[in-house]
Amino acid sequence: MRYSSLCDTGKLRKINQDNIFCSSDEVGCLPNLYIVADGMGGHNAGELASQLSIEYFLVFLREQENQPCDIEMVLNKGIEKVNRLVYNKSLNDPHCQGMGTTFICATYKMDTQELYVANVGDSRLYAIGQEIKKVTVDHSLVEEMIKGGELTEQEARNHPKKNIITRAVGVESNLTVDTYIVDCKDMTHILLCSDGLTNMLDEEEMKKLIDQAGSVEEACRVLVEEANERGGYDNISVILIETQKEVGELNC
User: Fold this and answer.
1) Which of 13, 23, 31, 177 is the 20 to 30 Å CA partner of 54?
2) What is the pLDDT of residues 120-132, one digit of tens each?
3) Do residues 114 and 181 touch, judged by C-beta distance below 8 A?
4) What pTM value is reported for the model?
């Protein structure tokens, strides 16, 4: 598989509270790993929350090396452990009070062409083939309003409370993690991203830019450029995986 990624501060924020991780090689018992974490909290605590969440998760995975691997369970248990560690850090350090982060990760089994996904918050994963499909469900206030019939998808895009999330790593002692298994046989790309991208571009716009790009590197660049061109109000993280290739590379 070939992949590329970019993590950009955007035009208005002084600090980048997003963090990403990419590896096409094995990580612990997983065949590969891709993560986007979008931190929140003052005094740089959001940046620390997203950074620590990835570091703690990698430590957990490496502890599972050479162990029997139920991927879905490993992703779930790993994020639950990360949540406890970040939460305890927020309790014990006054500068970290109230910090938290979204966390979305994915690993791809090439033999079965299945993608395993785990998600907390409103960072997203899309599977792209002939159409673009949003795999994850946002843990956000507007998503709950959509489910309740109070908002349409279009109304939610411009709602003043669209950035309020209802679930995040490190905010409470217990956490429910959503997991998904995606059949990628008809998919050409997998896109992981923070809301700094999805608040600026809709799904069809993202797919069009990816389809028109000559490579995953170019696609990442034009996605971030377009998000910044439209205001760049937030940090922007993009990981794009081309499922039909075998070479991976990272640009961040």
Assistant:
1) 13
2) 999 999 999 999 9
3) yes
4) 0.93
Two structure tokens written together for 79: 């994020």
Q: What is the pLDDT of residues 130-159, one digit of tens each?
A: 999 999 999 988 777 777 877 777 767 777
CA-based nearest residue to 47, from 75, 19, 77, 5:
19
HEC states along the chain? CEEEEEEECCCCCCCCCEEEEEECCCECCECCEEEEEEEECCCCHHHHHHHHHHHHHHHHHHHCCCCCCCHHHHHHHHHHHHHHHHHHHHHHCHHHCCCEECEEEEEEECCCCEEEEEEECCCEEEEECCCEEECCCCCEHHHHHHHCCCCCHHHHHCCCCCCCECCCECCCCCCCCEEEEEECCCCCEEEEECHHHHCCCCHHHHHHHHHHCCCHHHHHHHHHHHHHHCCCCCCEEEEEEECCCCCCCCCC
| Site of tokens 């075998």 | 246
Q: Which of 237, 238, 187, 199 minimizes the C-alpha distance to 216? A: 238
